[in-house]
Amino acid sequence: MTSDQRVKSRPTAAAGWEELPVRRRRRLLTIASIRSLASAAVLVTAYFLLPFTRLSNGNLIAEFVVGVLLVVVVLTGQTVATLRSGYPLLRSAEAMATTIPLFLVVFSTTHYLINGLSAGSYSEPMTRFDALYFTITTFATVGFGDITPVSFPARFVTLVQMMGGLILIGVVARVLIGAARLRGQNRLL
Prior knowledge:
The chain is mostly helical. The chain has 6 helices and no strands. It has helices at about 5-10, 20-50, 60-85, 90-115, 130-140, 150-189.
C-alpha cells in the first residue's frame, strides 16, 4: 500500500460530525466522556489523598501563584489541542472538563492550607471536603451561609477565586468555543 493509499484509507476528521456514522459518533463521545471523567476523578482523588504537609510551610503565596499558573498552562495547552482537533467542539468540552476541576482543586487546596496555617481565617474550621464545598459554593455563586472567609488572606483568595471563576466561565469558555469554531471554519476551507 502506498502512502497516498494509506492517507486515503484513514478516516479523516475533515468529515463533518453529521457525516460520521452513528457508531463512530458514539465512540468519539464515549472516549471524550471517559477522558473528561477520568481527569476530574484523578484531580479530586489527588486532592483528597496527597499530603499537603510540605505545602503548609509558609510559602503559601508562591504555591498559590504556581497553582494559578498551572491552570493557565493547562488551559493554554487545552486551547492549542482544541485548535488542532478534528472535532473541536467535542475537544473544547473536554478541555473545560479538565480545566474547571483543576481550578477548583487549586483553590480548595489554598483555602484548606490557609485554614491550617491560620486558625480562625474562616467562620469555622475546614476539612478538605469543607474547603472543596466552600470553593464550589463560591464558584457556583450561590453564596455563603455556613462557611465564610474572615481573615484578610482568606478573603483575598476568595476574591481572586470569584474573579477567576467569572473569567474562567465567561472568557475562557468563549476562547475555547471560539477556537473550536475557528478550527471548524478552517477545516471547511
